[in-house]
Amino acid sequence: MLQNTFTHYIHNEIIPPNKDELLYELENAELDVHQNFDWNDACLVDLERLDLGEKTISLFRPTLEIFFEEMNIDASKLKIFLSEIWRNTYKKGFFQEVHDHTPLHLSGVVFLTDEQDGDGRFYFHHRHDAEISKEWRDLNVFHGRAWIKAERGKVILFPSFMLHGVSIHKTDNLRKTVSFNLAFDTSS
What is the number of alpha carbons within 13 Å of residue 27 lying toward its C-beta? Predict the structure, then answer.
C-alpha cells in the first residue's frame, strides 16, 4: 500500500461562515500607526498594516475552528495570538517573492477580490523542489508549485514555514488580499 511518509505541507481553503462580516471589517479597517515593513525589499506590492484591535482574533475564530476540527486537533486549550495583519494591493507588474513566515506558527490569506485572467496568482512552493529529478517532474507525480485560485472571501490557512508567493500581476485590475500571522501557545 502506498503511504505518505511525511505530511506536514498542508493548507486549508475555507469559506468562513462569517464571510460578509470578515470582508467588511478587513476592507474598512483602520490603519495601524506603524506602517514600516522591514521584509518587503524583494517584492513589489502596496502594503497597509491594519489595526483591528482585540476583535480581530474573534473575526477569525470560526475559520480557525474549521481548520483545527478538520485536523482533529482540540484547539480549545490553545492560546492563539494575532502577531500581525496587513492588506496587500497588487497593481500591474507587482508580485510577491517566494518566502515563509517563520518563526510564527500559522499564516493566512483572505482574498478580497476574485481571480481574473492575467492576475497575479498565489502559490505554494515546494521547499525541496530542486531535489526532485526532471524525470519525476516529467511524470507529473511531484509538483514544485501548488496554485490557489482566488475567490472573494476565501481564507487560506497554512503552517508559517511553508514557502509561498504571488506571480507577476499582468492586468490593470487591482488584486487585493489581507495576510496575517498567528502564534499559539501549547503549554497548559
Answer: 13
